[in-house]
Amino acid sequence: MDSALQSINYNFDVEIDRTNSSSNKWDKYRDQDILPMWVADCDFKSPPSVMKALHERIAHGVFGYTHASERLTNLFIARMADKYNWHVEPEWVVYLPGSVCGLNLAARALTESGQTIISPSPVYPPLISSAKFANKPLIKAPVVLKNGRWLPDHETAGKLLTNQSGLLLVCNPLNPGGTVYRREELEATLSFVEKYNLFVCSDEIHCDLILDKHLTHIPFASLNKSAAERCITLMSPSKTFNIAGLGVSVAIIPNNELRQRFIKVKRGIVPNVNVLAFTAAEAAYAYGEGWLQAQVRYLANHRDLLKEEINALPGTTLEHIEATYLAWIDCSELPVNNPHQFFEQSGVGLSPGIDFGNRAFVRLNFGCTRKTLEYALNRMKHAVFAL
User: Fold this and answer.
1) In CA terms, which of 79, 183, 358, 364 is 20 to 30 Å from 150?
2) PANTHER family of this UniProt entry (predicted)?
3) What was the pLDDT predicted at 163?
């Protein structure tokens, strides 16, 4: 692999035509004049190191059953130590073909018959649906706005719990909302789960997309031994390096008993990660950091533009986004019954807030070129001012 790839001047303004590429994001509005700003994948080319590694692996010509290389696991472990001061043992790592299946496996592995799953709300829909698929009751624990940040309301959540509660789902950074939880906030969550004797599944797949330089992601399981022993952590290079379609994620499970339960539920149902996904992940972790930092700077500039423009519109509000490329826009003051439908009819395809738990909101994916973002904002402004 050419180390010079790390010093390339990356240009995220290049428009990549994703039509006719079997893209879920772009095919949703095929043959319609609607900009797709919904599902969470970016319109950027993946790091050159990833594409180079894939070309080389394809040239080999044989694509049999595979497993993760020792180098990939070592790269991941080193990344956890360097970025998060978290010491991860190799045996804690379980590879998955996606983080959503990890949520559903955790919901099954960490709850027993009659036990409840507690999910933040609003939140990314697969957290909510994991209880349904596991045939477990769901408690929606409110996420509330405090001093411009979306935070869990543990006091209210505690009143909702039953003696049969079993699993708390955590999303850090929060999707949607973009909150990066501080240590004291995570410690408050740990106190909550210790009080009610809960296991934790912490979805941390956006942890590399921190837009504010002064903030650092803290894995829940890294707090102390109590947190580690009750937690399954989900991470992935998919959002970080825009390789979601290749399908590779990681479950980190320090507790051996929980890990064996997780693996048992997975066996025979969830397929292994494929060879090209492993190849991409290894190249991304080995050589993609320069690309990642350039992407984060680009997205932070998008975030700043969005915050300014959305808050200048009558009837819409956007709180500060600390992480992710997903804007959670409050449309409760807009004189429309369905903000998602309103903007869609105006040529901007957003994610409906009802899918996350609040129909007064929409989620906007700003993982796109500046030109596309400005085009979408102009359409939104035109629609609002025409009311």
Assistant:
1) 79
2) PROTEIN MALY
3) 76
